[in-house]
Design a protein that fits this description.
By secondary structure, the chain is an alpha/beta fold. The chain is built from five helices and eleven strands.
Length: about 210
């Protein structure tokens, strides 16, 4: 699996280009993100944008990328309507209106997405940060795109926004802690390719401690 990480600023969400045609999450800095993508591939090559959850810092650039590429958009069914809600998308925190995004694909737990080269991303429903948060697991490479469910070094997503739950995020992290993960691609912060399972276990222990 070929993965390119794009980060438009220190505090912005990570975006991942997978196999030259799948984009996982976007950022707020649309112009910068598109420039970085076009340094790698023609933007028309993007076929699908997968959103790990509905929050504005992961979705803001979607409308412009869709306009330029014609890509479809996929998100978990419980977050499908939230992307255009100012409160649920937390776009108000950035002083912005929620972007206009109509999802073409509404995922459920266990769905799989064919990404080519014999590889598939499995949808793992991981509520807690939002109701419809997901992680994406690729079995062959043992890769996990974790959105804001877990981060490197024991971090995990906030639970104080609408749709968040301390209990559910702990359950969700426990679910992904059972996977065999070699590379962790989080929604924020560095990619971890050394002892990634340990980082997830740290997140699980940290989340349990806040109960």
């Amino acid at each position: 699996m070929e993965v390119t990480k794009f980060t438009t600023s220190q505090y912005n969400a990570n975006s991942y280009l997978v196999n030259g045609k799948i984009l996982i999450d976007t950022s707020i800095d649309t112009e910068r993100l598109i420039k970085l993508i076009e340094e790698k591939i023609p933007i028309e090559q993007i076929e699908l944008i997968i959103l790990t959850h509905c929050h504005y810092d992961h979705t803001a650039s979607v409308p412009e990328i869709v306009k330029k590429s014609g890509a479809k958009v996929g998100i978990h069914k419980l977050d499908g309507d939230c992307v255009m809600d100012t409160e649920k998308s937390v776009s108000y925190l950035f002083g912005k209106e929620a972007p206009e995004i109509v999802a073409n694909e509404l995922y459920e737990d266990g769905d799989t997405i064919d990404i080519g080269s014999g590889e598939k991303l499995k949808i793992i429903h991981t509520p807690g940060h939002t109701r419809g948060g997901i992680c994406l697991y690729e079995r062959n490479s043992k890769s996990l795109f974790s959105g804001d469910t877990v981060f490197s070094s024991g971090g995990f997503g906030r639970t104080d926004f609408e749709g968040g739950s301390r209990e559910k995020i702990t359950e969700s992290i426990g679910k992904i802690a059972e996977l065999d993960v070699e590379t962790l691609y989080p929604g924020h912060g560095p990619v971890t390719s050394e002892n990634a399972n340990h980082h997830i276990q740290l997140s699980h222990r940290a989340s349990r401690s806040m109960w």
